[in-house]
Amino acid sequence: MRAVFQQELADVQDRLVSISELVADAIDQATTAFNQSNVALAESVIERDAQIDEAAAELDELAITILARQNPVARDLRVVVSALRISASLERMGDLAEHIAQLARYRFPEKVVPKSLRPTFKEMGALDVKVARRLTELLRTQDVAEAERIRDDDDQIDALHLSVFDAVLGETWKGQAVDTVDATLASRYHERFADHAVLISKKVQYLATGDWVPQDA
Amino acid sequence: MRAVFQQELADVQDRLVSISELVADAIDQATTAFNQSNVALAESVIERDAQIDEAAAELDELAITILARQNPVARDLRVVVSALRISASLERMGDLAEHIAQLARYRFPEKVVPKSLRPTFKEMGALDVKVARRLTELLRTQDVAEAERIRDDDDQIDALHLSVFDAVLGETWKGQAVDTVDATLASRYHERFADHAVLISKKVQYLATGDWVPQDA
Fold first, then answer.
1. Best exposed site among A81, A165, B32, B72 by fewest CB in 10 Å?
2. pLDDT of residue A1
3. Mean pLDDT, chain A, whole residue set
4. HSE-CB for B26 with a 13 A CA cutoff
5. Whole-number mean pLDDT of chain B?
């Protein structure tokens, strides 16, 4: 029974890693589509979001089966409950990647943001991809140093997010309303994506260090 | 043991109802603060968000304790796991109410949106409040008719959300970039608030009808 249980827990972890890989690919392609106005790539991200949703739903079912059959307690129980939450955040990260791809598709053949903001979005996009790859690594290795790096990356993304507002609200902003709307939404999606990565990495970190923070704060 | 367990499940439900009441009060006051530029009210919403976070965290701990001690299976297990997810959505709804209050505070003594959009936001705000009150009722009574009404209200909110973009991107839009940013974010917060209510009501509905949809879709 114990060996089966350990195998099931390992399966949960493996699945989290593969969903995280799908999410990392999605944000990589979504931000590329966004920055290069690549509508085919955008559509492929949009189509494949269902895969992430499905993988997350399957993981949830597995976690619920483990709860029913194995009655895990103490740390094992927290690992399984955390998996449910991590899967919800990964699923949401997939949605946000999809939203970024949708913006690229809506505006095609135009670019989503005006020239002056493109370097900022390129940087935010690259950081989101970095965060997603680190997250996969964190879920695979439970190396908490990775969690710290995700938080540092997130601080940079937050600063870029604020700089988008500064640009849009500044005196030199020449954008039309459509540019303002797109920049606002796109920046918000990029920022929320990394927020979820931070939420997940806090959960992994607390599980690894034995210190549990129940809140999503 | 069974009686204790039933009492614990009832306690979970009661707590969900009270968190939902806190969220309904928060959105009521946040949208009032937003529409009337009432900075004191906005600050009170912002301050009290910690209460919602705390109540959600306590409920999560209770749910985890029940999982460990009672080893619920079948429908009971789904009820407890759903409670964890409902609590996460309620906590997020509290955050979104807080964001709406923050917009009111940032722009004070100015109003957040220009005159032309105020009726729209008044309507969206009133619908969000309605949705939150219905959600409390749904969690209290498990009356699935309430879930249907929440979905109808959400459809109206989605339509208003799209109408904000139409207004902002229309030829008659006279707003400055700051108005465009605020309208975009405010509309998004109002819309996401109702989305979470729909997610929760789907979970309650499927638990009530015995038909389980694992996905957050």
1. A165
2. 62
3. 94
4. 31
5. 94
Q: How far is B106 from chain A (nearest CA, A)?
A: 13
State the nearest Cα–Cα gap between A148 and chain B, in angstroms.
23
Contact A55, A40 (CB under 8 A): no
A64 close to B213: Cβ distance less than 8 angstroms: no
- Distances B43 to B31, B34, B192 between C-alpha atoms, Å: 12, 11, 21
User: How far from B213 is each of A29, B149, B199, CA to CA, in Å?
Assistant: 29, 19, 11
Residue B25 tokens read as: 């009060």
What are the pLDDT digits (tens) for B55-78? 999 999 999 999 999 999 999 999
Each residue's pLDDT tens digit, A100-122: 999 999 998 888 899 999 999 99
Nearest-angstrom CA–CA distance, A117 and A113: 6
**CATH placement of domain B2-209:** 1.20.58.220
Write down the ipTM of this complex: 0.93
Q: What residues of chain B have any CB closer than 8 angstroms to a CB in chain A?
A: 53-54, 56-57, 60-61, 64, 67-68, 71-74, 77-78, 81, 84-85, 88, 91-92, 165, 168-169, 173, 175, 177-178, 180-181, 184-185, 188, 214-217
Domain ranges of chain B: 2-209
Rg (CA), chain B: 19
Q: How many CB pairs under 8 A join A and B?
A: 90
Quick: pLDDT tens for A155-175.
Answer: 999 999 999 999 999 999 999
> What H or E segment, with its residue span, contains residue B160?
helix B144-169
Measure B177 CA to nearest chain A CA, in Å.
Answer: 6
Q: CA–CA separation, B86 vs B15, rounded Å?
A: 11
Question: Whole-model pTM?
Answer: 0.95
Of the candidates A13, A4, A71, the residue with the CA atom closest to the CA atom of residue A204 = A13
Q: Are B23 and B51 in contact (CB under 8 A)?
A: no
* Cβ pair B78:A85 closer than 8 A: no
Sign of CA dihedral A115, A119, A123, A126: positive
d(C-alpha A169, C-alpha A92), whole Å: 29
